[in-house]
Specification:
alpha/beta; Metallo-beta-lactamase, Chain A; 13 strands
Amino acid sequence: MMKSNRNQEVFKSFIKADSLMRFSVFLLGIIFLQACQNFTEGSTLSEKAGDHPNIIKLKGQSAEFTPEIVKLNENVYVAVGYDGSNASMVIGVDGVVIIDALRALGAAEKVAEQFREISRKPVKALIYTHGHEDHTGGASAFIEDSKDVQIIARVGFKDELQEHSPVEPILKQRNARQFGRDLLAKDVINRGVGPGNTSSDRVGKGYIAPNTTFNDSVFLTIAGIDIELYAANGETNDALFVWIPGLETLFTGDNYYKSFPNLYAIRGSQYRDVKSWGESIQKMNTFPVEYLVPGHTRPLSGNAAVHHNLENYSSAILSVYRQTIDAMNKGYTLQQTVDSVRLADSLINQPNLQEFYGSVPWGVRSIFLHYVGWFDGNPTNLYPLSSRQEAKYIIELAGGESKMLAQLNEAVKEGKYQWGLQLADYLLQIDFEPTIVISAKIKLLRNLAAQQINAPARNYYLAYSYEMEKNSMEPN
């Protein structure tokens, strides 16, 4: 259907919201497929066809978590793959310093035992790079019964965690989905920046609260080691990084790992300061680092390699931030902003920027909502229709429930998985043939999972599909 130039301009100016885009789709009779950076829809994979290229890449990422005590030099040892995160030991003159402490006490005990085989010197200090449980839960395994160990963290440590949230129950449920904690063994690949399965042996039971805190930075000498600690907002607002100049070693915590960063966690989290995150990485890159120890994935060695990785990491984070702000200031809606932000060609194929854990669109949404809240500027969205009423109108435009169900079945067959999910949700809103529609949605979720490079998204698709399947089989 042709429109005049004037009508096209009116359309562009006023029909920006995602809901109105869906109306125009139906009126024009066009099946709209949202492009997704993580995968391309359109091909239905059979088991005989083998894994999708994205799944092959994700499986390759598992090499980052092969259990090993990595020796970086005579003084620095990093435990990789024993739990969801890394723990490190730095050997000094008359003692050792531990940096991060894993999640499960059982896993931490195994690592602590191996560290003691390397050095029997007493632990003088333990540094938490941030408050997430996977870095703090096994502390007691390393310090044992000592009462004199400094436990060091930033002021405000752990303040933003889910256990302090009024919506903790739903955060826990979403956390389990994101990490695939309840998935069958056959479905598990990895978690993007950690093994697919981690120890459940006394999770968090070894946590010890800090007894030493600081605000912006602090320089310490512990066990004869000169240590510099710097506040570095990023994945958390209590994060820090550790620079040991005499060993040319940098411990980044979770502000760097081998994946595009998780600027927003789909389990639900407070705003992660994206601009500060990029700037924190830039600051790290001002030091002459020879050895880089991330909070997850394997360490890096060599000044040139470290500099390159930190440079493209900060560039990617700040590019997403600036593009999002620019689009917002042009009056773009949330979805238009998401659609407009892309990594440059020079960044998108970098090995340490693959979307194994974080996702560009998720980061864009987080930035947008942080600065302007839920209202995207289009007055249509001030008081939108209820989900059920919108579904009824859309189904009417499609020609009725049976025709939409036919379109849903066609979407499943043709590999239009995201479109199929949206159709399924309309039909579920009005309770039309719920058994059939739920079955279709389960299949669509699993097909999407089979194409997904992002581990949290893949785990969430699968976990949700199993929940739907279980609920559909339970008696009313």
